Amino acid sequence: MMRIKQSVHTALLLGFILLVAALLRFYQLGAVPSGLQKDEVSFLVNTMALKATGRDEDNRAHPLYLQSIIDPKPALISYLQIPSIALFGENTFAARFPVVMAGLLSLVTVFFFIKEVLDELYAFIVTGILAISPWHIVASRATYEVIFSFLFSVLTLHLFIRIVRSSHRSWWEVACGICAFILAVYLYHSTKIFLPSSLVLSYFIYRPQKEKFPSKKTIGFLLVSFCAVLFFTFFVKDATKRFASVGLFADPSPMIIANEQGTDATGKLPLLYMRAYYNKVVVYGKAFLENYLSYFDPRLYFFQIAQPVRYQIPLQGVLYIVELFLFFIGLIVALTRPKLRQKFLLFWGIFLIAPIPAALTTIEVPSMIRSFPIILSFAVCIATGLIWIVQLRPVWLKRLGLVVVSVGYAYCIVFFLGQFFVQQPSYQSWYRNVADEHMAALVKKYQSSYSSILVTTYYAEPYLYLVRSHAISVQQLQASYPARMQKQFSLANITFVPGECDVVPDYHTLMVTYSGCRFSYLYKIIDTASYDDGTPAYYFVIYSPPPDIRTPDKQAHKI
């Protein structure tokens, strides 16, 4: 009877935490973050295509990866969006609904994972911290691959540790763990390094002391998992394209600097010196180390410097300021108590491993999304700080500590809600693509009034937003591949041109140009697509000369 009551209390408390988490994630989901940025809209467009025809935007049947924006993305996200848009329509809420559900499920997996490796008290506190965490909230609303991969990564670690601790686990549990691992490494590139490393570390931490050799289930789990990593790294061509474009070794600037230094030093320094210091290993090693160490700067987590900018909240870090003090209290407590130090070995490992794949890239560094699993280590340390305060003696000191922490959290949460739901939508909105959505809606509005429309590709990939607004049909999009890989191409009555200010002297053509263009008296701006802060992004221009002007042949030209 006591166990039943305890289970009911556990379910009720966990349910309450999930309810709070759901409110923070579903509230204004269609409006915050503002607009669907390019990665989001590419998933939605492919979802529309798969739902309508069973093929992606490039007319490939049931793909494993999507090629949208020349950046392979896991097609599973689009498959999961199909029921969502069938229920809610082709809108922003529907596109983000599966992501929020993944975020909520990740809280459930975190609860049982922490309960397995620590205890139930830690599980509740850590889950509660993540439920109200700005970092987890942002990731659960817009970072599609990241939060799905995090969900399956935590599930993998949980099941693997259970298998390592007891050889009596069923093969079904092993199979579920392997499936979770495969999904995690398929969904996000960083996981290919983070998760295998964490599994190996988990084995050495949690294996029974009497066990000289790993069990068959453990060996099978690790063997299949590492084969999956090799498969997605070396045999699936699409899986490595992203790293090839943003990876550390794709950036030539470190070697350019080294070559300049070597050229300047020729004849001034010994050849042995130049070979020892101006080589790829040293140059890229320093670049990696610089990136890696940036993830241990507290400013990254508690102040507004984490990349990418499109996910930043003005004047708000990814963690609350009050958690800065709790984190350091928890860190000191964990390091000074031998039992906790031993219990936290896995989380020390995650703290050191998670930034490694993030440090191997050059774009948007330091990144809040590529190092996302490190949030587990922060949450455990913050929970330790809270537990230390709860255990303070005398009682008046404990009460004082709890009051200070409660007031601190309340102050920080209210500030976060205001910054996120009110300020963030219009903050540096040019880093998102709200103006592209406005442009697409206006093109749809004017489309029937003009025989042809010219749209600049100055902002890149405007066709995705035009498909979403149904100015271009899914079938027209699929039929245009690979022709639309050219600099200039046409879809429906819309021609996409690389020039930002191209106009033609034709009464029947609507021209959508970059807002920085200036036009002569022969042309008239009839509308503007702007960002949420009012900054113009696109001008809608028509040929409208004075009555006494007669223009010769239609010909594109810049003003």
UniProtKB/TrEMBL annotation:
Keywords: Cell membrane, Glycosyltransferase, Membrane, Transferase, Transmembrane, Transmembrane helix. Residues 73-232 form the Glycosyltransferase RgtA/B/C/D-like domain. Signal peptide: none annotated. The chain crosses the membrane at residues 93-114, 121-138, 144-164, 171-189, 218-236, 277-295, 315-335, 344-363, 369-390, 402-422. GO terms for biological process: lipopolysaccharide biosynthetic process; response to iron(III) ion. Its main location: membrane. GO terms for molecular function: pentosyltransferase activity. This is Glycosyltransferase RgtA/B/C/D-like domain-containing protein. It comes from Candidatus Cerribacteria bacterium 'Amazon FNV 2010 28 9'. The lineage of its organism: Bacteria, Candidatus Cerribacteria.
